[in-house]
Amino acid sequence: MATNVMTASAFDASESWKLPDRGQVGMACLIVAESAIFTIFLVAYVFYIGKSLSGPTPREVLETPMFYTICLLSSSLTIHFAGRLLRRGRRAAFVGLWSLTILLGGLFLYGTGQEWHRLIYEHGLTIATNLFGTTYYSLVGLHAFHVTVGLLMMAIVLIFGLAGRVGRTEATRVDVLSLYWHFVDAVWVVVFTTVYVIGR
Amino acid sequence: MQRDTFMCFAIAIAAGSAAAGRATRLTSIFAPESTPARSIFDLSMFVLAITATIFIVVAALLIYTIVKFRATAAKANTEPAQVYGSTQIELAWTIIPALIVVVLTVATARVIHAIQDAPQPSGALEVVVIGHQFWWEYRYPALGIVTANELHIPVSEPSRPRPTFLKLMSADADHSFWIPQLAGKTDLIPNRINEMWMDPHRPGVFVGQCAQYCGTQHAKMLLRVSVDDPDDFDAWVQAQRQAAARDESAAAGRQVFEATACINCHTVRGTGANGRFGPDLTHLMSRATIASGAAENTPENLRLWIENPDAIKPGSLMPAMKLSDSDLDALVRYMQSLR
Amino acid sequence: MSTDAMAISSLQHVERTWGETLHEWATTVDHKRIGLLYIGFALLFLVVGGIEAVIIRIQLMAPHSDFVSPQTFNRMFTMHGTTMIFFAAMPILFGFGNYLVPLMIGARDMAFPRLNAFSFWLNACGGLLLYFSFLGGSGLYGAGSAPDVGWWAYAPLTARAFSPGASSDYWTIAVLVSGFGSIGTAINLIATIICMRCPGMSLGRMPLLAWLYLVMSGMALLALTPLSAAQLMLLVDRYLGGHFFDTQAGGSATLWMHFFWIFGHPEVYILIIPSFAFMSEIIPVFSRKPIFGYPVMVAATVCIAFVSMSVWAHHMFTIGMSSYANSFFTITTMVVGIPTGIKIFNWLGTMWGGQIQFKTPMLFCIAFLFQFLIAGLTGIMMASAPFDWQLGLSYFVVAHFHYVIVGGILFALFAAFYYWYPKVTGRLMSERLGKLHFWLFVLGFHLTFDVMHIPGLLGMPRRIYTYEPGRGWDTMNLIVSIGAFVQAIAIGIFVANLLISYRKGAKAGNDPWDAWTLEWSVSSPPPAYNFASIPVVQSRRPLWDLKHPDDPDSRYE
User: Fold this and answer.
1) Which terminal residue of chain C, N or C, has fewer Cβ atoms less than 10 Å from its own Cβ?
2) Global ipTM
């Protein structure tokens, strides 16, 4: 008895048998898992709004980071177009837009760092100050951590790209990383709305 | 096989209950003596009846199946009819459980509301319960009483209802107040106020213990409730309201008490001792046990508790006081004077 | 039997040194090897957790016993729970999934082999880290050592004020790290099942085991992560001065409870669903009939997955939620019992009209059915919130969940061991020892866990290192403890069977049970590459089609 169960029409079955790309599915799963983590931090943030016993309140100390938010959200556009260029084989243009994406993400991180510096040294708000401090730094910090990881991954791709090793055949893998980056930006939209709009 | 096991189980309960008799009822959830416990008991009988029926029906079907459809030598080389499913049957065994669920949830919701949303009548006694590691603090705000570990509440007869409404708080970790004969358990959680009530129908002593793991000595954070006749209760209240008895023959012990660290944790009303970390000792001798039920309230145990608490309740927060023998004896005499 | 597969595997037989073999296993990315690593580690932790249980039971045999100190006892029940859930049950189920899923869907390996290995080692290191706490957890005044906060680690008991030293940190970090490993495996299983099925195997044709592992992995993504988030918050509290669960600063102890149980309840479904998978593969084969109602089984499982995410606060009925919240969770908890109950009926329907063979795997399946029925019914009792105000936090709950985990999951695992051991090793396990293991374990299990319900009904709370005499708990506890010893002996027989059969078991061949899914089409053990050529299938039971070409399944589905 044959171990495989091939039948006469096996060949046709195999030819038309297309399943989703496992990189995309894997990244989608990771995004689902990460969304759950962020949701819990968001729930904690919302739950503790107005419950701090002392210390600075959001209204007193928060300044809306409009510019850096625009940087981050624009980087979603640049990464999207970078991917399209790569799929068309336009390597140099890809590297250019990819670098711009990293720059914009880096600017966002710089902005976060600047904001934290102001909050800590001018307003005395640390993670240990009160419930607002704890939930704010944890939530924004968790997001910033994910931005950092994304930038590191993109830097690795950039190094390979500069070495001429990223072409059309790597486009699907680069797309997987882009998916992650879009997720990071989407999270920022939610965090931004919760912290700087609703929570104030 | 499973049927025999179930029979053994049923016989075990019956035998165990008969043998243990009264003792078994002490903390049994099936011996309610108060309205909330009774409501839960009635609901539980209903739920048990339904679940027992489901068990008998399904178990019978399972037993029938494994007996009737076992492989036999006669059918050795054949395969049975390959049946893939049946929409009607599957619909039936979805709808019937759904109906059972509806019945159970309606019955349950009524009891939840009856117990939790019961209004507090004007004559109710209010007690504030504060859970500590590993003892219970009781405050009666309207009566001006503070005591520890042994709760006294009045009996509540149907003709003269006098329920007790408890406010539950915690000074440290989570605890849970559970006296099965009087009510279901409710947790004591720091930074949160929970409420429960009970109206014991007969006088007597009811016991239970902390039911939420709270640290090393969670196991010996026992509960003891004395349900008193109205006269007894009033007498108890009057006695508790008094400041500490002054017994001159125990003056030496009182000196020791007030000169050492005791006053940092304990209160003896009418003296300079007003610590809140440990139990109020003003009327220590009115209690049958010490260390929240861990030992009987005898002079020997008192002495041992002060000298070496770990011998009675290892891991409790009472420190060994490292006193000389004479100081210890004097102190115990002082404790005994706090009637 | 294909000759080319045989020829290639005989070529692979090379002499290796111990060092080389060890290196091979330590660096493997083969799903079968990783599966066995998971199972091996899990069995080790199962034994360790079992020893902790025996210590607990010896202490509780009589009231006011001093076999162990309260401090040690509290560490025992914390470590027992943590070990069994995170380092025995989860890994052993992921191990079976790892081994079986690619074989059953006609794939050569998992979607991400290196992630697979990494996930295993994260889990293993987490386990070792947890146990290192016995040595390294000392902190303030030696107040450390192994964690003693219970496996739920309720706040504020885990705050620095109440948990000095590093013992709680060992719990937090060990579980956090292994949690990431579990998420990795969940991602891997989903990607494998979605993207690597062999041609012809649509989602509607894949074995129920694959479906159930798919659902279980999806749940893992959504349920394990809230615990990770809460643990990160706890670390912020303990190390950075945060106040997430700091009640002194306005923080909430109940917030931890919500986060924990949003993980904790789906977690137990994550554990039981693979057990359902084993039942759904084994019962049909030993009843000689296909599973009754395949589409409904899938739908019921998906239903369970969704509804189970809405029941978590039934673990919190006593914390003082409003009557509306309590009613809501009563309703959802009872509703989740419906699709679960349906499954029992479907297995019953599978056996009905069949020709049941009482081989050891089937014995464990039948016991599972009775025991899971009882466990489900005691669950319904506790779903009724007022009833739970008495039953909750008592030994009734302990009896209930051990009924599910031991009487359900462990029995299903035993069935799976006896069923797939021939595939993994090429030899059958001893039927004689198997039946002895079965009956002895049934005896011990029921002695312990049937009787354990009674002290709960008589007011005995859980997590107490000793108890008062004269409350009717004494004899019951003694019987419970005796049952534990009987179970330990039975497990010993099982381990002996595993080891002896490896050398002395009867040769199994490809398909000793006359089964119908793809793993039985390859040699036992399978070659490293699984299939010489990727199979193409036309029904849910490709081997039935091959064995009955005149009456294939594809005609009826």
Assistant:
1) N
2) 0.94
